[in-house]
Amino acid sequence: MKVMIFVCGEGLGHASRCISIGKELNSAGHEVHFGAYGYSKELIERNGFITHKIPSEITLAGKAGALNMKKSILVTFKRGQFLGLMKLRKLLKKNRPDVVISDSYYMGLIGARARDIPCYLILNQSNMEEFFKGKGVSSKILGEIVKKFYTGMFKLADGIIIPDYPLPNTVCRKNLKFKKKNCKKVFFSGPLVGRSFEGTEAAHLSRPHVLCTIGSFGYREPIFRKVIEAANMDDAINYTLLSGPSIDPSDFGAIPENVHILRFIDDQFPYMKASDVIVAPGGHSTMMEALSFGIPMITVPDRNHSEQQNNASVIEDEGLGRKLDYSASPREILENIRLLIDNEKYRNKLLQMREMAAELNGAAGVRMKIEEMFAASIEPGNHK
Rounded to an integer, what is the distance from CA 292 to the centroid of its chain? Predict the structure, then answer.
């Protein structure tokens, strides 16, 4: 079976979870090609996969810790990024995959259906109209247009993969809403992570240790700097901070001895296993990785980013970590780090999530679903 995996490039979490699927498919003897762009394409290529450059689908815009979805859509249209559909169709015609998996990349789904190729859509949000609520009449109208678009996409998909724990333990559950006729397409795979806890050797880091994946670019820089200030208040706690691929760590001047700043980590899992707390935005993939490794989180979701805000609320409500915002002081950050390091209640809850993730084995579950769909598609009277 030949599988083409399309990856949305807005956030490396999409790439990370698709890499886990790619590895599982490869291990079962299937041929895997990727379509990606930006840093996602570079990461996938470094993992040894055949990767084709595809047009970007949406450009994210915002400031001061806030995502502006209306502005993001307008910028995307101005740059003509939606005009890349023809290029995508040519790529599919040339490579002739048997099955397409498209992670939050709707052009991939449209291209696959145009060529009558079975397609699974991966997503962790199905109520994107939430971005536009309470923001004026024009935003409400735009929200309705967006809703009609993605509900149409759900109808086109042969299946919808939610890379999360099954209900009632689904972290992204506040972001999911499907019409009844689409519910039968939904499959909760469990977390899709690149490495298992048992199969990962911990990095040699001084404990207790905090891994911060906030990044120091754009509107997230203030919270990144506050974590450094928090580290300076207690040198008994050690930190690894990821500044981002385009940021030079030397830009931050004098750094406390208990802080190590890196631009990027190709394989973050040894660092996760050696850490006691993870500080991250409200991105879904990082949450799944942390829970699969049994690590409590401090989440700092972007302002006005309803998806991240909802994810972070579930993390706190379920006793899996703490939710902070950009107004949090360095002292408040430090107090929450200490709480998560010392509180046995959090450790016990996270152990349950780690064991559940291992039992679900998300990537293997997706592979079996894809194999079933391919087998069904080649039966007489079906797609191929």
Answer: 14
pLDDT tens-digit profile of 118-158?
999 999 988 765 655 555 555 556 656 666 766 778 888 99
Predicted model pTM: 0.85
- What is the architecture, at CATH level 2, of domain 2-195+360-377? 3-Layer(aba) Sandwich (3.40)
Which residues are 62's β-sheet partners? 67
Q: Token pair for residue 212?
A: 């911060």
- The CA distances from residue 378 to 93, 117, 160, 194, 382, in Å, are 18, 11, 20, 30, 6
**What superfamily in CATH does domain 209-358 come from?**
Glycogen Phosphorylase B; (3.40.50.2000)
CB 240 within 8 A of CB 209: yes
Token pair for residue 187? 């499959």
Rg (CA), the chain: 21
Strand ranges (E), the chain: 2-7, 31-36, 50-53, 62-63, 66-67, 99-103, 119-122, 159-162, 186-188, 209-212, 238-242, 259-262, 277-280, 297-299, 321-323
pLDDT tens across 38-91, in order? 888 988 999 999 999 998 865 444 444 444 444 544 444 455 455 677 788 889
Residue 176 CA to residue 143 CA, distance in Å, equals 16
